[in-house]
Amino acid sequence: MGERASCAGSGPRRGIRLAGGANGVDGGIILSTERMRDIRIDTASRTAVVQPGLLNSEVKKAAAEHGLWYPPDPGSVEISSIGGNAATNAGGLCCVKYGVTSDYVLGMQVVLADGTAVRLGGPRLKDVAGLSLTKLFVGSEGILGVITELTLRLIPAQPPASTAVALFSSVQDAADAVVAITDKVRPAMLELMDHATINAVEDYRRMGLDRTAQAMLLVQSDAPGAAVEEIAHIVEACEKCGATEVYATDDPEEGAAFTAARRLVGLALMQLGTFYLEDVTVPIPDLPELVAGIKRIAEDCDVLICVVAHAGDGNTHPVVIFDSEDPDMSERARQAFARVMELAIAMGGTITGEHGIGRLKRDWLPLQLGDDVMMLTRRIKDTLDPQGILNPGAVLR
């Protein structure tokens, strides 16, 4: 008694930590929630009460058995836990239309630093009683409490989607097309992959992607009664922005094959070497400028930066590839990583759209938020965790 240790939360061991948010610290304790796997679905209220150890894909599967759908759809859907998704407020491929994790968390049980278990919210679609504390904990990366249960909003099953795939001779043209598409429609999915990413996927697994394309857009529409019209606009927008080829299909299996290729990006890029994974987001009209800036940074630092993006909401994942055995290249990669975040901040964007701050990006957080917001964040942290035992070193120093 009298001794205390720092605690970092962790989900299933199959998962990965994209910003160092769940890495352990010397003298600390890793708290694993992977055995907390209960789930109850209420079809009448369209809610699911789940424990944090379930994978996102398992929640989706359980909901689908009742004709329901849990929309948040990170690329890591098969390996990321629902608790981790809540801790980082994860988004994903479908968030351009359907929103992110916080849009579906109606309530939770959270254990505070002093051991108090608090129940927040509940299975109600509207509830403004008191402060919005549920929203405070979603995306807090484990620095305020440990989530032990979530009440999630479900919606009716997603209708079959129509798919368009467009190839471009430059990433810039593809980014311009994203702006043109979103000016008129709100697609269910709008993803971007650059030349290096396309080829990394093909090297990892033959998916039939065009290796000569400099960029590819994957777009889906599931608008009931309007998908054909939306896809027609998407095709027209891509062609006007210089697409070299556009292919459209109503076949769900074909659409799923292209989506599967997009989901392989993370595993494929891991084969290229050590990497820094960015998560910068800007307003959609500024996406072409961001893409151009990333290209300049790659050239200036003489490193490979692969660009993949949830382009429909301006959330990009530039991946800085380098050889960790080469000190000079490692330093250039670190500089590129920093410059991409600084570029996003200068453009009025954010250094993280869905992966979180963790330990990797915390030094750039004050640059984005400013002293006043950092002070407020620190005061909240110190109030709920005065001894600093919850995920020490994440988000805040």
From TrEMBL:
Record-given protein name: Oxidoreductase, FAD-binding
Keyword Oxidoreductase: yes
Any single Pfam family the record assigns to this protein: FAD_binding_4
SUPFAM superfamilies for this protein: FAD-binding/transporter-associated domain-like, FAD-linked oxidases, C-terminal domain
UniProt family annotation: Belongs to the FAD-binding oxidoreductase/transferase type 4 family.
Segments traversing the membrane: none
Key word Flavoprotein present: yes
